[in-house]
Amino acid sequence: MRKVLVWQNLGSPRAIALYHEMGYMYWSDWGENAKLERAGMDGSDRKVLISMNLGWPNGLAVDKAGSQLLWADAHTERIEASDLEGRNRRILVSPVQHPYGLTLLGAHIYWTDWQTRKIQRADKDTGENVIVVRDNLPGLMDIQAVDRTHALGYNKCGDKNGGCSHLCLPNPVSYSCACPTGILLKDDGRTCDPSPDTYLLFSSRDSIRRISLDTDDHTDVYVPIKELNNVISLDYDSVEGKIYYTDVFLDVIRRVQLDGNGLETIIGEGLKTTDGLSVDWVARNLYWTDTGANTIEVSRLDGRHRKVLINNSLDEPRAIAVFPRKGYLFWTDWGHVAKIERAHLDGSDRKVIINTDLGWPNGLTLDYDTRRIFWVDAHLDRIENADLNGKTRQILVSQVSHPFALTQEGRWIYWTDWQTKSIQRVDKYSGRSQETVLGNMEGLMDIIVVSPLRQTGSNPCGVNNGGCSHLCFARSYDFVCACPDDLVNEVCSTIPGYLPSPPHPTNNSEKISGPSSPNTQGERADSTPGVTAGSCSEAEASDGLCTHNGAIPASAGDKLRVPHIIAGSLSLLCLLLLICALLIYRHRRAKLSDPALGTLTYSNPSYRTSTQEVKIEAVHRPGACHLQRHRKEAHPDNGFTKEKIRILEGFGLLSGEESEWDDLKQVKPSRGSILRDHVCIKTDTVSLQASTASLDLTETQQLLQEEQSETGSVTLPPSPERRASLPDTGWRGRHLPSTESEV
C-alpha cells in the first residue's frame, strides 16, 4: 500500500528523517531552491524551516535528545545544526569534502564522504574530535546507526493501527487514516473503498471501464458516466482523482471523478477531432492533439488559458504524452510522412526523433523509470521502443494484429487491439510472456494505467505555478511563462514572480500613468514596489510586458532590469552596425565617383558568331561615368565589325574627335547634348545587334536613332574643372572644338 503525501513545491527531495513520537517528518530538498522542510507524517502542517545559504543538503538526522536537526551540505562543505524549528543555526564541522549520508548514535554524528572515501565521526554538540572510522571505501552512499539497547518510541498508530483499514499516519496532534493513492476513504474516516490500488482505465467508444491489476480477477467495471458517444482518448490526474477524456462525436473535452460524479465540460468549442490527450500533473496543464485542425494545444486543467503550441508541419497528429520531470512533450503523426516528434512543454526545440520505418504510429506511452518511449504501429503490426532521443530503437513484439493504444505499468506493456477485440500485455524488457488480459471487447480505443507510482516527480512549475500569471511550461533546462491565445481584458506577465493586478478600465485614447491612477500597479510575489504603467513600447512588447490595454507595470527588481539591459545593448549594437554600413557605403561611393582614379574595371561580354541580342544592365550613380568604348579600326568601308566592338559596362565615354565620331552627331537634341570631349549616356538597357557583317556609318546612325526611345537620355558629364583628372581612354583628337556651338 502506497500513498503520495507531498507532490507539490518539490525540486529534488533527498534525505528524510522521522520523529515518530512527535508525528513529524523532516526532509531535505537540493533542487533549484534548496531547503529543509517539515510536515506531519500524514503530510499535514507542511513548513519550510531553512531556505537560506543552502547548496546540496544531502544527509539529514534528528537528534531527539538534544532537540536539534543536523544536516550535511556537499556544496557549502560543512555540517550544520539548528533547533527543530529551524532556528539557532550553527556550523558544527567545516570544511568537509563531499558529505553524503549522515546519522546519529549516542553523542556522535557519523557521515560518509564521496571524495575522501571515508566514514568520519565528530561530537554532535560541538563538532570537535573529528576522527576517521573507516577509509578507502569507494562508492559510499547512505549511513544509518542502529542502537539495539534504545527503547522504541510510541504514537497512537501503534495501537491496532489506529483503527484504520489501510494506513494510519501520525501527526503532531493525533493521527489520520489514509488510503493508497487512487482509492477513496469512506465517510467513516477509517475505511477505504475496496477499489484496487492499480488498475487499467480503457474506453470502448460509448463507455469508460476499469480493471483491477492487483488481483487475478480482471473483471471490468463501468465508470458510470452519462452522455458518452465516441470516446477516443483518456488520461488521469492522480492529484484530484479525475478522469479526462475526449468525445469526438460531441467535440468536447471533459473531466469526471472516478465514481462518475462531478462531470464537467472544460473545452466545448473550437475542436475538430481530438485524437490524443495528456495531463501534466505537476504544472496542472492539459495537452491535446487535434488531427482535424492539425494542431497541438494546451490549457489549464480546468480549460482556462487555452493556447496553440504547434500548428505547422503536422499532418495527422494522434497520440501525445508528457514527461513533466524532463520537461518534454512527445507525439505521433501518422500522416503522409509518418513520424514521432519531441518538443519542450512550451512547444520549443521541436525535433523529429523517428521518421524511418514507420507506418501508422497510433499509440504512444512513456516509461518514466527506464526513460524510454513505446509505440504501436498498426500498419507494420508491431510494438517498438527507443530512448528519449529516438536512439537505441528496438522491436518489442513483431506480430500484433491491429494495435491502437498502449500504456505501461511495472514490467508490463498493455495495449488495445481492434482486430482481436482484446487487451493484451507483454513483458516490457523481453517482449515475452504475452497474454490476454480481457477479451471479446468491441470498439476498444484508448488505455491508461492509474497507479500511485505512475505520476510522481516535480519541476519548477509545480511551485506556485512557477510564479507565472497564466501558463507555466517546464523545459529540460529551465521553465518559461506564457500567455494564452484567448486573453481578453486580462493582464498577463511572461516574467516569473510578477503577479499583476487587473488593469484599470480606460478608453482607447487614455494612458495609464501617474501614481494616483488606481489599480495600475502590479505587485511582485515578494511585494517589491512597482512602477506605474504607460503606453506599450516596442521594447516592452518584445520583453512580454504588454497587454491589450498597454504596458505591464515594470518593477525595479533585477528580473525586470535584465530584459531592458539586453534590449538596450541590442539597440546600441544595431546602431553601430548601421553607422559602419553607412561609412563603407560612402567610401565605396567616393571611390566610384572620383574621376582622379587611374583604373577602371571593364566588363566585356563574349559574342557568338551568330546574330544575337546582348542586354547590358546599368545602374546610374550620380557623378560617375561607366565606360562604353567603340574602337574604330581601319577598314575598307570605314564600318564597324562585330569583332571590333567592345561593350564596356553601362554608360559611354566618347572621344570628341569630330572626324572619328561624325556618325554620333546625328543624335537628336531631345536626347541631350554632346560636349567637347566626352558624354555620359544614361540608360537602363541598351540592345546592340551584332553580326558577322560590317556596319557602315549609315547603319550606325540608324541603330542609334532606333534606340532613342529605349536608352533614356544623354546627361551632362562632370564639371570642366574636373575634366583633366579623367583617366586616359587611349583616344587622341586632332582637333577639339573650343565652344559648345562648334559641337
UniProtKB/TrEMBL annotation:
Q: Which Pfam families match?
A: FXa_inhibition (PF14670), Ldl_recept_b (PF00058)
Q: Where does this protein reside within or beyond the cell?
A: Cell membrane
Primary location recorded for the protein, binned into one broad class: membrane
LDL-receptor class B repeats by residue range: 23-66, 67-108, 241-283, 284-326, 327-370, 371-412
Membrane-spanning residues? 565-585
Superkingdom of origin organism? Eukaryota
Q: Which PROSITE patterns match?
A: LDLRB
Matching entries from InterPro entries are given as: 6-blade_b-propeller_TolB-like, Cueball_EGF_LRP_Nidogen, EGF, LDLR_classB_rpt
* A GO cellular component annotation in the UniProt record: plasma membrane
Per UniProt, the ranges with Polar residues bias are 506-522
From the UniProt entry, list the residue stretches annotated as the region Disordered: 503-536, 705-743
Membrane topology (UniProt): Single-pass type I membrane protein
Annotated EGF-like domain residues: 156-193, 460-493
Supply the alphabetized keyword list.
Answer: Cell membrane, Disulfide bond, EGF-like domain, Glycoprotein, Membrane, Repeat, Signal, Transmembrane, Transmembrane helix
Family annotation (PANTHER family) = LOW-DENSITY LIPOPROTEIN RECEPTOR-RELATED PROTEIN (PTHR46513:SF41), VITELLOGENIN RECEPTOR-LIKE PROTEIN-RELATED-RELATED (PTHR46513)
* Protein's recorded name: EGF-like domain-containing protein
Organism lineage string: Eukaryota, Metazoa, Chordata, Craniata, Vertebrata
